[in-house]
Amino acid sequence: MKLVVRILIFTVLIPGTVLVYIPLWILRHRPPATSPAAGILRGLGIPFGLPLLAIGVFVYAVCAWDFGARGQGTPGPYDPPRKLVRNRLYSRVRNPMYIGVTTVLVGEVLVFASRTLAEYTCVIFAACYLFVLTFEEPYLRRKFGASYQEYCRQTPRWIPRFSRNPADSAEAR
Predict the structure, then answer these.
(1) Do 90 and 66 contact (CB within 8 A), yes or no?
(2) Sign of the four-CA dihedral 162, 165, 168, 173
(3) Number of domain units in the chain
């Protein structure tokens, strides 16, 4: 099966479930509050939430593309990249795809002014964090060895590095 099709299937199944299907289910079963405060938050949520949704989707798309084009694999742990991806967003932070997913969820929280979606977002980020620490990073250390170790020394896990020189961020940490 072509790589692009595998990436699209993964995207519809996993991020689609986390970012669309479950939030829709939450909103259907636990609608946002209708208090005046929630109305104000919702009013602010559209101008702030929609850009976050767009940025998060863009970040995910760039990462998924790089996994295919550079890494020769998919975002799915069952079909991971065969090469270590260190370009573009991955040159600034080790986990931009998880950051993109979380950004979409925060955008949804703002747009829908939903406390339940906010709680769900916290659970998803915690799950991503634990997955990275307990599975992904140990797996990448075994698979890519010294190359991955060097990448970890140069690139922060969650907070993007914006300096031009990778050594700057390593010295600052």
Answers:
(1) yes
(2) positive
(3) 1
C-alpha–C-alpha distance, residues 121 and 18, integer Å? 9
Asked whether residue 116 carries a pLDDT value surpassing 50, the answer given is yes
Rounded to 5°, angle at Cα 148 from 147 and 149: 90
For the segment 63-87, what is each residue's pLDDT rounded down to a tens digit?
Answer: 999 988 898 988 888 888 899 999 9
pLDDT of residue 51: 94
Spatial contact of 59 and 96, defined as CB atoms under 8 Å apart: yes
Average of per-residue pLDDT values in the chain: 88
Q: Which amino acid is located at 133 in the chain?
A: L
Q: Are 136 and 157 in contact (CB under 8 A)?
A: no
Q: How many CB atoms lie within 10 A of CB 112?
A: 21
Q: Which domain holds residue 52?
A: 3-172
Q: How many angstroms separate the CA atoms of 64 and 169, rounded?
A: 25
Residue 45: other Cβ atoms inside 10 A: 21
